[in-house]
Amino acid sequence: MKDIEIRSITYGSDEYEKSIDLRNEVFRKPWGLNIRDEDLTGDKHMDMFAGYKDDKMIATIFLTEDDKEHARIKSVAILEEYRGKGLGSYLMDYVEAIAKKRGYKKVNLMGRVSVEVFYNKLGYKTISEPYDYHTIAHIDMVKEL
Ligand SMILES: CC(C)(COP(=O)(O)OP(=O)(O)OC[C@H]1O[C@@H](n2cnc3c(N)ncnc32)[C@H](O)[C@@H]1OP(=O)(O)O)[C@@H](O)C(=O)NCCC(=O)NCCS
């Protein structure tokens, strides 16, 4: 991924605003929803990262903590035209390495059922029945680091 740069995003910055637009594009607009109708203040407590190609933000991935043993990955979003080229795996590896370095033993995430196989291939196991979140079927998943 030599043409991809990963940068940290600061809450409230211009880049943070772009990350909201990107997540809206990927996670809400296709279902007629608007992420800006939601309370996003929880983002304050995330380590937020974005992937850039030629200085354009094309992806997001966030890291947070559930408890001392468990990190949590959230907001894994890649603009459509950049999918299927290994970027998702690259971002997941990047953030998992940070979690491991910080001493977490496991990573939790809430995955869309439609991308369960993507996470399975990265070593995540499904630990819940499917449930609805913003009208979309999700499952809880976990990986041992
Ligand atoms: C899901 C997503 C992050 C995957 O990123 P990506 O860059 O397309 O994935 P990669 O190219 O790294 O794929 C890695 C592997 O997972 C597989 N994979 C990726 N998306 C998949 C999907 N939707 N269904 C099944 N397999 C998938 C790839 O075929 C590849 O398999 P291989 O290693 O055998 O070749 C990306 O497609 C995306 O942003 N989708 C829309 C938003 C979304 O659903 N995010 C997850 C919310 S929980």
Helix content: 10-25%
What's the β-strand tally? 8
CATH first level: which class? Alpha Beta
**CATH fold-level name:** Aminopeptidase
Poorly predicted ranges (pLDDT <50, ≥5 residues)? none
Describe the main β-sheet briefly.
Answer: 8 strands, mixed
Outline, from the CA principal axes?
globular
Structural class: alpha+beta
Average pLDDT: 97
Q: Count up the domains.
A: 1
**CATH architecture identity:** 3-Layer(aba) Sandwich
Radius of gyration: 15 Å
CATH superfamily: Gcn5-related N-acetyltransferase (GNAT)
Q: Count of DSSP helices? A: 3
**Through-space gap between termini:** 22 Å
Strand content: 35-45%
Order of helices and strands: EHEEEHEHEEE
Bound molecules: coenzyme A
Defining traits:
145 residues, alpha+beta, Aminopeptidase, 3 helices, 25% helix
Task: Describe what you observe in this structure.
By secondary structure, this protein is an alpha+beta fold. It has helices at residues 14-28, 87-101, 116-121; strands at 4-9, 47-53, 56-65, 70-78, 106-112, 125-126, 131-133, 136-144. Strands 1, 2, 3, 4, 5, 6, 7 and 8 form an 8-stranded mixed β-sheet that branches. β7 (131-133) and β8 form a beta hairpin. The longest helix has 15 residues, at 14-28. The model has no long low-confidence stretch (mean pLDDT 97). Coenzyme A binds at residues 26, 76-78, 83-89, 111-112, 114-115, 117-118, 121.
